[in-house]
Amino acid sequence: MQQAKAERITITLPPDMLASIKKEVSSGSYGSTSELIREAMRMWQKREEEYKARISLIRERLAHSEQSGEPVPLNTAFKTIKKLHQKQAKKEV
Predict the structure, then answer these.
(1) Which residues lie below 8 Å from residue 31, measured CB to CB, with a gap of 6+?
(2) Strand, helix or coil at 7?
């Protein structure tokens, strides 16, 4: 796979962020500011992909839940859960 040609951009950062970048580069953790920014972008892209995947899964589960039978009032659901919990707690004693 051939890598796309890199394009130069200019960004403006607050002094504290710039200081952190310079510190990491000067410590040898990164070879250059560009290397650090590319790594930060890869991390951001991964986080965004994971977020979108989680949202998609939640939407799928909600759609499945919506089609899985008659709705139960929230108070009824919590009462049922409480009874099941109490029953389980008695078994464990």
Answers:
(1) 25
(2) coil
